[in-house]
Amino acid sequence: TMVDTRTDIPKTPTLPDAQTVTEVTHWTDRLFSFRVTRPASLRFRSGEFVMIGLMGDPDPKTGKQKPLLRAYSIASPSWDEELEFYSIKVQDGPLTSRLQHIRPGDQIILRPKPVGTLVHDALLPGRRLWFFATGTGIAPFASLIRDPQTYEDYDKIILTHTCREVKDLEYGRQLVETVRSDEMLRELIGDGLDKLVYYPTTTREESPRMGRITDLLRDGTVFRDLGIEDFGPETDRAMVCGSMGLNLDIKEILESHGLREGANSDPKEYVVEKAFVG
Ligand code: A2P
């Protein structure tokens, strides 16, 4: 991976809601993560998203520029002094074709209004918390697995991540490794970190566990691998973030086990959000 760290970071914003890029990491030719300065007043709950983007091209008639914004889950925890995001690169994507070229010192637009359903408040108390992600859908869980509340509220946290190839898992793999070994996090979270189970799968390249998470749930492989009996509405809670297909398929599996979809105003057993960009 290629890590670009902060160089000369200009102090004067030149855009409304501007934040400065502090670090960019390119994971594959289609995936990158970046960190930006955090507005002093920004409070958010782990799992929420914000609108971020760049100034669009000038309108050919008026010459006016409008911001080009997309929803991005905040991947960093709420105690972090910077904000982290994880993104796909789409070569003809209006935003990501340009966003993939940001460097430390550049500015992006960040609307400081965090929202979203993948928050602890949207779930009733339970014993096990499942995070189901495909692709960049791991971003909100990157925040939640660094949040002390996750370990205070549950006995076991299971993060599943399904990607096409092994290299697509690397951001999540390193994140989990850091979470497990980082001294500062250990101090913050305590022995709770031992409760974190990481379950990566690939669908188009050989790896220790192959297949879509949905198929591995339906045929019982996940439960056998983890030594768990099954889902139950008394014990299990889930947050889902991936492609439309994953979201619908997991919903069906969870509903068939008696889990119901919750919301901020009406907490239940699981919540869903689509992975936004790409
Ligand atoms: P697959 O390779 O079988 O399509 P993408 O790169 O298209 O966003 O997909 C990311 C990962 O999500 C891939 O491993 C893909 O598997 C998987 N995936 C796509 N749709 C579903 C689904 N409905 N249920 C589970 N996994 C899915």
From TrEMBL:
The keyword NADP applies. It comes from the Bacteria. Its EC number is 1.18.1.2. InterPro entries: FAD-bd_FR_type (IPR017927), FNR_bac (IPR033892), FNR_nucleotide-bd (IPR039261), FNR_type-1 (IPR051930), OxRdtase_FAD/NAD-bd (IPR001433), Riboflavin_synthase-like_b-brl (IPR017938). GO terms for biological process: cellular response to oxidative stress; heme catabolic process. GO terms for molecular function: ferredoxin-NADP+ reductase activity; nucleotide binding. It catalyses: 2 reduced [2Fe-2S]-[ferredoxin] + NADP(+) + H(+) = 2 oxidized [2Fe-2S]-[ferredoxin] + NADPH. PROSITE patterns: FAD_FR (PS51384). This is ferredoxin--NADP(+) reductase. It comes from Pseudooceanicola nanhaiensis.
